[in-house]
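Standup notes
- HV: blocked on the assembly model, inputs below
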Amino acid sequence: MSLVQESILMQERPFHMIMNSLMSHDEHIPSKGMYDHDITSIIPQIILALPFVVVLVLYIFAVAANNRRHNRWPSIRTAYWVTGCLLAIGSVIGPLVEQGIVDFRAHMVGHLLLGMLAPLLIALAAPLTLLLRSLSVPLARRLTALLKSRLAQWLTHPSIAALLNIGGLWYLYTTNLYILMHEHTVLHIFIHAHVFIAGYLFTVSIIYIDPMSHRTSYFTRAIILIVALAAHGILSKIIYAFPPTGVPADQAERGGMLMYYGGDLIDILLIFILCLQWYRAARPRLNKKAKEFSHP
Amino acid sequence: MTIRHQSAFDTLSAYSKRNLWSGALFGIGLAAFIDEAVFHQLLHWHHFYDKSTTDIGLISDGLFHAFSWFATIGGLFMLADLRRRNVYWGMKWWAGKLIGGGSFQLYDGTIQHKLMRIHQIRYVDNVIVYDLIWNVIAVIMIVVGLILVARARKHTYARKAVSHDHE
């Protein structure tokens, strides 16, 4: 309701005012009375960063507790976790956020880190496995039940997760949502949370690191990954050719290319891991092996 | 001894198609990779975006670009799978690679460059010369690939005859 009203308001505001508020952070402050908050103030940054700080610390404590009771937790997973959380934190607070408002390229770097690289590293750290080990048995059972629920099945189905992920981006960059995001703190927080969560759901729907109760075939996941990567690439070219409202053409071009090639790099990692998992799962079994290896 | 030969032959022909597919996927991926690395990045002949691109061209290019990354990596993992099963068949694999790579190049050079106008090979006056060389190379790759398939088939019959002789 209020979103609709505000988007109507947006259209009524003269274009140069929108541009001004985007171009310079300093000019943004006097017009602050118009909006409820300033998105670069400390509160929204803390709201976005705090969850990552908390889980970063909790994971390390859980690893320490785990190593006392069970087998040693692989250090590489801890390394993935720390790097992933730090990248996510770096993309929601500090200079990248401030720069991201005036410079679309910085915004795009933040998007690649928060929506793609951090989720991949965090998924590789197998947080659910660690959580299941750390919880008491009744709690772990309840969590397992939750992971098997209809909702969880839906959200982690590759097609739904891909739609949430790429569809959300499509909506952000082809409507005036992008410019609204810079004006409204709540929207800013919601969109950034969405970018990360959708990125994480998509990653875990494609590569299985943590336990997953309802699996889809390698073939299905491969097709959906290709379509999602294609949609990501097409969207970057659309941004390149038709800059989102308020983004100067040269920044849109650089940003679009950054999104295209950056997305490629991270998706290559996803493709590699998916293929590696297939390669391991499809290894010849012993009885078959005896037959196959017998040819001259 | 004969039985062993026969069953080995069966496994090999069961994997014959997979050799072709693995090669074809890798061929598509390699052709797309050379296109990206050499013509986009090194020579800067191809443009990232051409204003004359049709919508369908944008979609086709996006899908092929995404697919080609998957094809390169997936094709190589399939090759590793064939080798660990000891059923790698060079002639079939190379046939697939040439047919896959040639087909992609021909599709890129005719449909995508000309019909969908995603971009030209090079932004010069006599682009027709580039187009001709591009597409002729593609056709040669496909033809050589098909010849290899035919030769592999002949080879198969020869092997079959040999294993029948043993019986």
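- HV (later): unblocked. Chain A touches chain B through 34 residues (CB under 8 Å). The radius of gyration of chain A is 22 Å.
- Next: hand off to the docking folks.
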